[in-house]
Specification:
The radius of gyration is 25 Å and the shape is globular. β4 and β5 form a beta hairpin. The protein folds into 2 domains: about 150 residues, Hotdog Thioesterase (Thiol Ester Dehydrase, Chain A); about 60 residues, no CATH class. The protein is an alpha+beta fold and about 250 residues long.
């Protein structure tokens, strides 16, 4: 009688394949543990970016869970430059028998992001706007230790750019990248008790210009122009529907 295809039944070829996949001789396992990431996030409110990175580097603060997941760590950290290290392993592989390109991209994004963080004061963060990766050579578990260097190209009050290189110990290049990041300051630094969040309604009891209903979208703009625009917006929005505006850096440097 032919196989009816009911649940629990399989063809000879399929059963043999399933048996081989579950074979203990080819099965690998890996356990990952991590600590509460909000401990470091809370510390960032009172520590400069470089202080935060160094505290994580020496184990005074827990590292991010993503670092534990893929096995990367901070090897070097100074103002405007951070080096991330990793040893490629089989658990990083894609179906083609080499390290997934996303691992290299993660290393590069991390190194450049931390290079930006190393330049920031306390209570200041960033987000990546753009990441352009160029892959030069494939990685395998035979490649050995890899080092990803992130360096600042330009540091403005709202926009930062950085570059990164992924190399082996001898200096041979495996990937290079550039990024653009948006710098965002914690509300306590603004001195007005308000915050800039894209798409959120804002209200402030301390600043007459920022009445409920004004929506601020982060854009580059000079301070003087911002004051003039917000004044017009505040006047136009009194008793009316929400008005869309923009928030500029604390100074005119971009």
């Amino acid at each position: 009688m032919e196989n009816s295809g009911h649940l629990g039944e399989c063809s000879l070829d399929t059963c043999e394949k399933e048996a081989s996949i579950s074979d203990p001789q080819i099965r690998r396992e890996r356990s990952v543990t991590w600590q509460d990431p909000m401990i470091a996030a809370e510390a960032s409110k009172t520590m400069s970016g470089l202080e935060l990175i160094k505290a994580i580097q020496v184990g005074e603060l827990p590292g991010p869970p993503i670092a534990e997941l893929i096995g990367m760590w901070v090897a070097e950290a100074s103002e405007g430059r951070v080096v991330i290290a990793i040893e490629p392993a089989e658990y990083h592989y894609n179906p083609l028998g080499m390290v997934h390109g996303g691992i290299a991209a993660t290393l590069l994004d991390t190194a450049m992001g931390l290079a930006v963080v190393s330049m920031l004061p306390a209570a200041t963060g960033f987000t990546t706007l753009e990441l352009k990766v160029n892959y030069v050579r494939p990685l395998t578990d035979k490649t050995g230790m890899m080092y990803c260097e992130g360096k600042i190209i330009h540091m403005g009050s709202r926009i930062a750019t950085a570059e990164g290189r992924l190399t082996e110990a001898s200096g041979k290049l495996y990937a290079h990248v550039t990024t653009t990041c948006l710098v965002s300051r914690h509300e306590s630094l603004l001195g007005k008790g308000w915050r800039s969040v894209m798409g959120e309604r804002l209200s402030s009891s301390n600043d007459k210009l920022l009445q409920p209903g004004i929506i601020l979208v982060v854009l580059r703009q000079e301070r003087a122009a911002l004051r003039q625009q917000l004044t017009k917006i505040a006047r136009a929005s009194e008793g009316s529907a929400p008005v869309y505006s923009s928030y500029a850096p604390l100074d005119s440097n971009v």
